[in-house]
Amino acid sequence: MSWTHTLAAYDLLDDPNTSGAAVAAFLAAYTADGGPTAEVETVTGAKGATDFVRITIPGRRGKTVGGDAPTLGLLGRLGGLGARPEQIGFVSDGDGALTVIAAAAKLLDMARRGDVLDGDVIVATHVDPDAPTQPHDPVPFMDSAVDMAIANDLEVRPEMDAILSVDTTKGNRVLNHRGFAITPTVKDGWILRVSESLLDVAARTTGVAPAVLPITTQDITPYGNGVFHVNSILQPATATDAPVVGVAITTETAVAGSATGATDLRVVESAVRFVIEAAKDHGRGIVSFHDEAEYASLLSQYGSMSQLRIPSPQSA
Fold first, then answer.
1. What is the overall mean pLDDT for the chain?
2. 3-class DSSP string for the chain
3. pTM, full prediction
4. How far apart are CA 255 and CA 94, in angstroms?
């Protein structure tokens, strides 16, 4: 279980003074001597500043030690952890960051005790306790201090063989489910079938039938092109040709990303366990994000869809 790590991470992030440095220090407390340290970079944009945090947790057969086990990226997507001074406290939009930071703490703690995963895991997110908001239907979105392209550049790494992108996805009416859901796999502009092995992991960690978030072609195009996106959950897919699956924290009713008091820690903890179990099985080759032969067949019959990853002139 990862309750202690989830609760500690929530207490850390539900603070108007939290920062990337505070997250790095939090993770260091779970790290063995000589273990990995978190990288922190502060970026200032037109709407404020935010701290990007990234840490690589080495696997026993990972690339960092010259091994051949695949690397998994765990990305926490969000606009901000808080909307201060407009809102007081941790906002619903912060659940993605909370999930991956808690998962990083648990993975580091596991490694310190001797439970080392096979593959490397790279965890990245950003920390902003006073982000702006923006209008959105059916409920308001959190905005971000920096452009999505900057977030992708700092979080999506070329060594990631697959990515789980965790994002609060409560402000919609397409999935009325309390818990978390996964999306179909997105690879280089193609929306592929839902990963059966990830469905297996979701079923095992929740004990109930897994939920799937429906997505459209619009959702996998870069922000700024003037079309509707369910949210930023699949924006990492615009910055890599590696397969990406969204992990959506969902609710039965539409809840604004800028709403406070809306984080259900039971749901977050289940998402933490899901991404950790997926990381275990991905490194061992048990979890596959897509069928490579089927993908190759699609390419040979219909060609590349990578043009969907290219920002439109309208977004420039």
1. 94
2. CCHHHHHHHHHHHCCCCCCHHHHHHHHHCCCCCCCCCCEEEEEEECCEEEEEEEEEECCCCCHHHCCCCCCEEEEEECCCCEECCCCCCEEHHHHHHHHHHHHHHHHHHHHHHCCCCCCCEEEEEEECCECCEECCCCCCEECCCCCHHHHHHHHCCCCCCEEEEEEECCCCCCCCCCEEEECCCEECCEECCCCHHHHHHHHHHHCCCCEECCCCHHHHCCCCCCCCCCCCCCHHHHCCCCCEEEEEEECCCCCCCCCECCCCHHHHHHHHHHHHHHHHHHHCCCCCCCCHHHHHHHHHHHCCCHHHHCCCHHHC
3. 0.96
4. 13
**Encoded tokens for 308:** 């969907």
Q: How far apart are CA 87 and CA 90, in angstroms?
A: 8
Q: Residue 193: which residues within 8 A CB-CB, separation 6 or more?
A: 184, 185, 290, 291, 294
Share of the chain above pLDDT 90, in %: 86
Confidence label for 46 from pLDDT (cuts 50, 70 and 90): confident
Going 180 to 182 to 188 to 191, the CA torsion angle's sign is negative
CA angle 271, 275, 278 (to 5 degrees): 135
Query: Whole-angstrom Cα distance, residue 140 to residue 282?
Result: 35
Q: What is the CA radius of gyration of the chain?
A: 18
